[in-house]
Each structure stands twice: as C-alpha cells, then as structure tokens.
Amino acid sequence: MPAFDTYDGTELRFDTFGDGPPVVCLPGGPMQDCVYLGNLGGLSAHRRLIMLDPRGTGGSAIPADPSSYRCDRLVDDVEALREHLALDRMDLLAHSGGTNLAVLYAQRHPERVARLALITPSVYAVGVEITPEVRRATALLRRDEPWFPDAFAALERIVAGHGDADAFRAIAPFWYGRWDEAARAHRDAEDAHKNHEAAARYADGAFTPDATRAALARLPSPVLVLAGEVDLNSPAPATAEVAALFPRAELVVQAGAGHFPWLDDPERFVAATEAFLAGPTR
C-alpha cells in the first residue's frame, strides 16, 4: 500500500483500485480500515478508488497523540492526502461514520471538493435526530423475514435503553438487504478491522452541528446522498433530512438495500454513483 506522512508525522496508508478519474474514499465504523469497502461493488471499473486507512487502522500507524482520533482533527489527514496526491480539487466519497469526516472536510475546505458522495450517512456531525419511531417503521419493512421476531425484540430492548451486547448482535440482519452467508461473513469481519479505542474518541467534542449546517448550506459542490430503503442504521427519512441541508443535493433511495448498498445490489449502486460522479461540478 502507498504511504505518506501526515501533518504530525504519522504514516498513513491508502489502497487503490481501478483506473479512471480518482475518487478519495473514507470508510466508516467509525475508525475502521477500508477493507470492508472492497471495490464498492465494481465502481473501480469506472473510477480509480483511493481508499484511506484512517490513523490507527489497517496499514496506517498509531499516532503518538490519541486525541488526534477526534473526527475534526482527522480533517487534516484528508487534506494531507489531497496534497500528497497533488489534486487541486477532489471527488470525495464516504460511507456511514466516515461521512461525518467528509462533511467536516467540506465545511473547512469547500474549495477543494469537486463532488461529495455520502453513502448511508451518519447524522451526528449535522445534528439530525433519528427517532425510535423512524427506526421501528424501518425495521417493520422486514417483518416477513424469518429472523425478524428475534431481531425486532432485540431492537425493542435497545430502544427502551436495555440493549446489551447480545441485543446488538441480534439486530445485525437489519443492516443488510439480504441476511445470507455473504452478509454474515461481512458482519463477522467488521470487528477485526476496527480500532475501538479510536472509535471511543472519534466524537469527543468534535461536532458543532449548527456551524456545520450553516457551512453546508453554502457548499457550491454537487452532493449525492444515497440511502438504503431498509437501512436501520441510517433510515431513509433521516437521510432525506441530511440531503436537504445542501443546496445542490440529489437523494437516491436504493430499493431493498441496507447499510451496505454496494453488497445488496452492486449494479444499481454503481449505476447511481457513477452517474453522479460523471456529472458536472459547478
């Protein structure tokens, strides 16, 4: 994997897939390495995917200062990657928890963002609330699945504030459009690629939603906000609220998809994402 030194001397690594115009990709977790993204369902057939392992994950080094895991401080790592790649402006794609970092980057460096693709986004950085009612309604879309009764009972315990590790394991099927062997393997691999200490520090004082929302309302770049129809983590109604924060946002709700839409229907995901990336900037 190629490497570069970021602003504080920490060595960061990134992987690349495919050819074509570059797209910088930020993984979620938060603080997972980029392995779980794969080649984003085949998007690498159209774009050169530049996938960053955040500090302390994957091939990237553990920083000397653990407070640098804060999301707002990670913005400087993304900027250091842009400079290393010698890109004047870049297309930026982020998934889940990584979208918090992407919007903070766009807030601080709007002139460096050509296009911004937010895939099943987190809502923390922008202060959108996901109510228990929205989560229940999203979960009920899966009521005919054989695993639903146990998973829904676990969700009710979590919503009531009584969720334990077993309950969170039990709701795993809600994160995927199909709870099959591929989804189970994907889920089982997640913990092995996550830095839990870094994740615990990720949001610690990092977010100022009012300021971020005000900045995003002035962002001139086109934005894709892609939701999964059955995604319990980032329900479509909340994702629509995220899209409404931008003056030039396109909302796509991928039918039948969960939190990892490139796994559930790669062709549909790639078609929507590539159509956006191939469009105009300003």
What's the gist of this structure?
36% of the residues lie in helices and 16% in strands. With 282 residues, it is α/β, with parallel strands linked by helices.
Structure commentary:
It is a single chain. With 282 residues, the protein is α/β, with parallel strands linked by helices. It has a single domain, classed as 3-Layer(aba) Sandwich (Rossmann fold). The protein is 36% helix and 16% strand. The protein has eleven helices and eight strands. It has an eight-stranded mixed beta sheet with strand order 1-2-4-3-5-6-7-8, with helices on both faces. Strand 5, helix 2 and strand 6 form a beta-alpha-beta unit. Helix 1 (71-85) packs across helix 2 and helix 3 packs antiparallel against helix 4 (148-159). The two termini are 33 Å apart. The mean pLDDT is 95.
* Main sheet: strands, sense, barrel: 8 strands, mixed
Order of the strands making up the biggest sheet: 1-2-4-3-5-6-7-8
> How many structurally independent domains?
1
What separation lies between the terminal Cα atoms? Answer: 33 Å
Which features does this protein show?
alpha/beta; 282 residues; eight-stranded mixed β-sheet; Rossmann fold; 36% helix
Write the layout of secondary structure elements.
Blueprint: E1 3-5, E2 11-17, E3 22-26, E4 48-52, H1 71-85, E5 90-95, H2 98-108, E6 113-119, H3 132-140, H4 148-159, H5 165-170, H6 181-190, H7 196-202, H8 209-216, E7 223-228, H9 236-243, E8 249-254, H10 261-264, H11 266-277
Parallel strand pairs: 3-4, 3-5, 5-6, 6-7, 7-8
Antiparallel strand pairs: 1-2, 2-4
